[in-house]
Amino acid sequence: MTEEFITLARVIKTQGRHGEVAVEVHSDVPDRFAPGMRLWALAADSETERRELEIEDFWPHKEWLVLKFAGVDSISDAEALLKCELQVPLSERAAIEPGWNFVSDLVGCRLLDHDREVGRIVDVQFGAGEAPLLVVAAAGGKKFDIPFAEAYLAGVDVVRKQVRMELPEGLLEVNAPLTEEEKKQQH
């Protein structure tokens, strides 16, 4: 059996002349990154090939975290890491407080509004507001962005792969993709 990994960050761009990269952090765990920490870089076009890296140094910069890896010493070395997911084995996942959930546990769950299935969670996006957005793929190719807000959350069952919510009336209709007729009316 192959070991499972979880993503802690994604490389956004090179940063500096000495191999540094700016990353979008996907962890809310304080002090998650440290010098000497090992990460595995998974290329965007691969599902299995990982490159082991060791953090040499790091610092915050604007909305990102800048990472300097041992042995990555030039812009061209850093370019090879663009769009990579920086991961750790599932066995090294940090402990979290009760009531909190890992993004990796939410992706793949069925989203239920009361007892009606909306679809499957395919992604979680941060930065659009107070609450992260659950990207939900529904039947017929529709996608919905649902705020993962405590006010709407009825429960998360990671074992049964279900997220139960009580969404405000009309939220799914407002969030629904435009019909062909609505698109024509906009033009």
In short:
This protein has helices at residues 75-79, 103-106, 171-175, 180-186; strands at 5-14, 21-25, 38-42, 50-61, 64-69, 85-89, 110-113, 116-125, 133-137, 143-147, 153-157, 162-165.
Q: How would you describe this structure in keywords?
A:
2 domains, SH3 type barrels, mainly beta, six-stranded mixed β-sheet, globular
Q: Would you write up a description of this structure?
A:
With 187 residues, the chain is mainly β. The protein is 11% helix and 41% strand. The chain has helices spanning 75-79, 103-106, 171-175, 180-186, and strands at residues 5-14, 21-25, 38-42, 50-61, 64-69, 85-89, 110-113, 116-125, 133-137, 143-147, 153-157, 162-165. The strands form 2 sheets. The protein has a 6-stranded antiparallel barrel with strand order 1-2-5-4-3-6. The protein has a 6-stranded mixed sheet with strand order 10-9-8-7-12-11. The protein is globular, with a radius of gyration of 19 Å. The N and C termini lie far apart (53 Å). 21% of the residues are buried.
| CATH fourth-tier homologous superfamily of the largest domain | RimM
How far do the termini sit from each other? 53 Å
CATH-scheme architecture of the largest domain = Beta Barrel
How many strands in all? Answer: 12
Order of neighbouring strands in the sheet with most strands = 1-2-5-4-3-6
- The top level CATH class name of the largest domain: Mainly Beta
Discrete helix count: 4
Fold topology:
Blueprint: E1 5-14, E2 21-25, E3 38-42, E4 50-61, E5 64-69, H1 75-79, E6 85-89, H2 103-106, E7 110-113, E8 116-125, E9 133-137, E10 143-147, E11 153-157, E12 162-165, H3 171-175, H4 180-186
Parallel strand pairs: 7-12
Antiparallel strand pairs: 1-2, 1-6, 2-5, 3-4, 3-6, 4-5, 7-8, 8-9, 9-10, 11-12
